[in-house]
Amino acid sequence: MMLAVHHKGYIMKANMRENSIGLSTKIICTLENIYTGEKIIKEFHNIICTTGKVAIARRLAGIAEKANEGEITYGATGTSGAAVGAGDTTLGGEIERKQVASSSYTSNTCEIRTFFTADESVGAVEEFGLFGEDASAAADSGTLFNHALLSVAKSNAQTLTVSVVFTIA
Q1: Which of 26, 30, 110, 132 has its CA 20 to 30 A from that of 43?
Q2: pLDDT digits 0-9 by tens, 141-166
């Protein structure tokens, strides 16, 4: 890309190499039967919400407008099957919210896991999102980082682990 800069009446031209950064995610849901150990693993598409992108940008800039700036602290399931969009700020029908069970990173990949016991989120789990910053245990609180439509039928004989994998490329 060629950049033209006006400086003291002169036009200077400089070649600029384009360098872009991208953030992608995927969601992996693991249902495990508490009696037999049988596992069902499903992968789903995921959207990074605008509010999550803004939080990441503020974190990179070192700007602390909110408590726990840029940090993800809760995962939540919901029952809404409505289309998800970048402008979402809450789940469509939040039913269960848990603190993140664990997180890890390797090189340019981060994985955040939320664990639901056999008695939690029983039934049709249709959506999932990660919340942070000023999030609490209360439904719809905090910054929504991502939102995904799921299709998971969870019984009270199964645990559910939702892993969200962020890759910066």
Answers
A1: 132
A2: 999 999 999 999 999 999 999 999 99
- Which distant-in-sequence residues (6+ apart) come within 8 Å of 136 by Cβ? 74, 142
Distance CA 123, CA 110 (A): 29
**Other beta carbons less than 10 A from residue 117's beta carbon:** 14
In a domain, 2, yes or no: no
- Cβ atoms of 140 and 90 within 8 Å: the answer is yes
Domain that holds residue 91: 20-168
Cα distances (Å, whole numbers) of residue 168 to 40, 54, 102: 27, 16, 19
**Residues in contact with 57: Cβ distance below 8 Å, sequence separation at least 6, in sequence order:** none
pTM (2 d.p.) = 0.84
